[in-house]
Amino acid sequence: MTAIPSTKLRALALLAIALLAACGKEPQQALGTLEFDRITLPAPVSEKIVRIDVREGQQVAAGAPLMQLELTRTRSQLDAAKAQAQQAREALSELETGPRSEDIAQARASLSAAQAQAADAQAYYARLQPLGRQKLVAASDVDRARAAAGNAQAQVRAAQAALLALERGTRTEQIAQGESALAAAEAQAATQAVTLEKLDLVAPRAGRVDSVPYKLGDQAPVGAPLVVMLVGDAPYARVYVPEPIRANVKVGQAARVFVDGRDGALNGRVRMIRSEASFTPYYALIGKDAARLSYLAEIQLDKSAAELPAGLPLRVEFVERDAQ
């Protein structure tokens, strides 16, 4: 039998010790639960639920009807907003068209009448002036005639200004104000139209209905969750990484996920890990107290876990980067 050299024996012994040390090293692990991405559909207005099209646990496609709220009040508000928009539109059209020819003709006639009255008042005042100097009429009569002539001239100037304003048409500032009023009314109508559309709830993405908190006939407050959906091709593991292993966990790192009640491990990769601790008992942690810190992390799983329900407890072992 051939003897093994002592140098080879020492090498084999060192290799065995290294393998035993590697086997005895506990893997880095964290605890958490199985989760799906959640979508919450809130109540856009406080209206009564008149129809529910799904049940909890049902799988739905994107765009599938989920629920409908009462439409009467919101539809009436939309009709009122549309009427206001139409009124603003007609007012702007009137401003852009300018004054009618009949209005201009009426202003010219008013100017002619004012000019005739001014001429008559001026003639009457001219006749009274010499009589007043001869003391044949009272001075107050002359003063009244002078005032009447001046008033008549002012009426002429006012009628001329009114005619000029009509002939020049609408000011650009008035048209701009009309355009702004129309834009505001149309925006309000569009807002009401969107609100009316939201009263018929549809699935924004394909997924599973997780919760329908309210029942038929309920009237939920504004913002209350009407339907909660679980979406995504596969769930993810939400775990809390202890502080002692936080430095060795990186985004993109491979992980093995062990779910309670399921044999074998699921493969996943770290998609997110928080930089701030979720639980910080003290402001300054040193020594053993630092081990109390935990960092929230998410591990994305493959499609083999798609049928697992949310909320299952699990354990995650992080694969060493050298092993990857």
Automatic annotation (TrEMBL):
Using the record's annotation, list all stretches that form the YbhG-like alpha-helical hairpin domain: 114-195
**Keywords annotated in UniProt:** Coiled coil, Signal
> Which ranges does the record mark as transmembrane?
none
Q: Which InterPro entries match?
A: HH_YbhG-like (IPR059052), UPF0194_transport (IPR050465)
Where is the protein found, in the record's own terms?
Cell envelope
Please list which residues make up the signal peptide.
Answer: 1-21
Q: Which domain of life is it from?
A: Bacteria
Residue spans making up a coiled coil are 71-98
Q: What PANTHER family does the entry give?
A: EFFLUX SYSTEM COMPONENT YKNX-RELATED (PTHR32347), UPF0194 MEMBRANE PROTEIN YBHG (PTHR32347:SF29)
Name the UniProt record assigns to this protein: HlyD family efflux transporter periplasmic adaptor subunit
This protein's species is Luteimonas galliterrae
Organism lineage string: Bacteria, Pseudomonadati, Pseudomonadota, Gammaproteobacteria, Lysobacterales
